[in-house]
Amino acid sequence: MNNKPAFTEKRFLITFILVTSLFMLWGVAHSMSDVLNKHFQNVLNVSKAQSGLIQFSVFGAYFIMSIPAGIFLKRFGYKAGVILGLGLFATGTFFFVPAANAESFGFFRVALFILGCGMATLETVAHPFAASLGDQRTSDRRVNFSQSFNAIGAIIGPAIGTFFLLRATSGGHENSLDSVKLLYAGLGGFILIVAVAFFFIRIPDLIDPHSNSDAPIAAQNIDIVPGKRLFQHRHFVWAVAAQFFNVAAQAGTWSYFINYGHEKMGFSDEKAGNFMVLFMVMMALGRFVGTYLMKFIAPNKILAAFAICSIVACVIVAQSWGWTSYCALLSINFFFSIMFPTIFSLGLKNLGSHTQQASSFISMGVVGGAVMPYFMGKIANVDVAHAYYLPIICYIVIFLFAARFFKVIR
C-alpha cells in the first residue's frame, strides 16, 4: 500500500488555484514598491534613508493589521477575509491618485499603509488557507508552490514598475507623477475585478479542515499538547522571530538593489531596474526548485542550507568585487526564495485550534521589513555595498530556527 500523502485533493483544486492567484497579486505590489523607492528618490528628492520609509509604511501595516485580520478570519472565514483584504488593497492603490496630485511623500505613505493593510489581511488568510487544502504532511509543499507564483508576481512588478516609472524618469520627465497615478489606478481596477470574482465564486467552508478523524494523525493539524497556550509552543514563537528577521533581510536587500546596480556597476536606473526582473526570476526559480527538493529533503534542512548560502553571498556583495559581487547579489534571491513560506508552514505545525491566530502573529512578524531598509539606508548613504553586512544577522537567526528550534515539543 502506498501511504505517500497527496499534494492536495481534487475537491480542493479550484479553491487552491484561486488562493494561489492571490500570492501572485501581492507579489506584484511588493516588488513594485522597491522600484517606487528609487523613483521617489528621483522625483521627490528624498534621501535613501527617507525612501526606506516606503517599506516602513507597507510593513508597518502588517504589525497593525495582522491581529485584527486573524480575528476577522476566525469569525467570518476565509472567503470574507479574502474580500476584505482585496478591498483594502484596492483602496490603497486608488489613494495614489490624490497623493500624486498633491506631490506629497507623506500622502503616498498613507496610501502605502492602506495598501499594506490589504496585503497583511491577504497573507494572514492565504497561508493557512493553502496549508489547509490537504494533508498536513504536504502543507510545506503547497505553501511553497503557492509562494512560487508570488515570485512570478515579483518578476512582473519590477518589469511594469521600471517601464512606467524609471523609464519615464530617464526620458526627462523627472517632475511628473502621472505615471504613478496611471500604474496604481490600473492595479486597483484589476484588484476590484478579482474581489468581485471571489464574491461570486462558491468556496468550501474550511474553518476547521483537519477535523476528519478518519485521516491519519500525522495528516492532521492537531495540537498534540492541547493544554498549552499559543505562546507556549516554542516552534511557533521562533517562527515569528525568524519571519521578522527574514522579511527584514528581504526588504533591505530589495530596497537597495537598484542603487547597488547604479552606484557599484555604473548602470542607468532603467538598466538596474531591468536587472531586478532577473533578480525576481532567481526567486521564482528557487521556489520551484525548493518545492521539488522537499519531496526528498526535509524542509527545515533546505531552509538551513539556504540561510548559510545567503550569509556567504552577503559577505561577497559587501566587498564590491564588480560582477562577482553582483552575481552574489542576484543569488541572494534564489536562496531567499523558500524562506518565507517554509518558516510560515513550519510555524503552523500541530497548533490545532490555534492555527488561525498563529497565522496572524507570524504575518505580524513581517513588520521586520519596516525596520531594516531605514538602517541599511543610513549605511547606504555612505556605501551601499557595506549595507549588505546587516542582513547577515537575520540569516543567522533563520539558521538557528531551521537547525534546531523548528521542532514541535510535546
Automatic annotation (TrEMBL):
<feature type="transmembrane region" description="Helical">
    <location>
        <begin position="12"/>
        <end position="32"/>
    </location>
</feature>
<dbReference type="InterPro" id="IPR036259">
    <property type="entry name" value="MFS_trans_sf"/>
</dbReference>
<dbReference type="GO" id="GO:0015535">
    <property type="term" value="F:fucose:proton symporter activity"/>
</dbReference>
<feature type="transmembrane region" description="Helical">
    <location>
        <begin position="236"/>
        <end position="257"/>
    </location>
</feature>
<keyword id="KW-0812">Transmembrane</keyword>
<dbReference type="GO" id="GO:0005886">
    <property type="term" value="C:plasma membrane"/>
</dbReference>
<dbReference type="InterPro" id="IPR005275">
    <property type="entry name" value="Lfuc_symporter_FucP"/>
</dbReference>
<feature type="transmembrane region" description="Helical">
    <location>
        <begin position="106"/>
        <end position="130"/>
    </location>
</feature>
<dbReference type="Pfam" id="PF07690">
    <property type="entry name" value="MFS_1"/>
</dbReference>
<feature type="transmembrane region" description="Helical">
    <location>
        <begin position="151"/>
        <end position="170"/>
    </location>
</feature>
<feature type="transmembrane region" description="Helical">
    <location>
        <begin position="52"/>
        <end position="73"/>
    </location>
</feature>
<dbReference type="InterPro" id="IPR020846">
    <property type="entry name" value="MFS_dom"/>
</dbReference>
<feature type="transmembrane region" description="Helical">
    <location>
        <begin position="302"/>
        <end position="322"/>
    </location>
</feature>
<feature type="transmembrane region" description="Helical">
    <location>
        <begin position="272"/>
        <end position="290"/>
    </location>
</feature>
<feature type="transmembrane region" description="Helical">
    <location>
        <begin position="80"/>
        <end position="100"/>
    </location>
</feature>
<protein>
    <submittedName>
        <fullName>L-fucose:H+ symporter permease</fullName>
    </submittedName>
</protein>
<feature type="transmembrane region" description="Helical">
    <location>
        <begin position="182"/>
        <end position="201"/>
    </location>
</feature>
<feature type="domain" description="Major facilitator superfamily (MFS) profile">
    <location>
        <begin position="15"/>
        <end position="410"/>
    </location>
</feature>
<dbReference type="InterPro" id="IPR011701">
    <property type="entry name" value="MFS"/>
</dbReference>
<feature type="transmembrane region" description="Helical">
    <location>
        <begin position="358"/>
        <end position="376"/>
    </location>
</feature>
<feature type="transmembrane region" description="Helical">
    <location>
        <begin position="388"/>
        <end position="406"/>
    </location>
</feature>
<keyword id="KW-0472">Membrane</keyword>
<dbReference type="InterPro" id="IPR050375">
    <property type="entry name" value="MFS_TsgA-like"/>
</dbReference>
<keyword id="KW-1133">Transmembrane helix</keyword>
<keyword id="KW-1003">Cell membrane</keyword>
<feature type="transmembrane region" description="Helical">
    <location>
        <begin position="328"/>
        <end position="346"/>
    </location>
</feature>
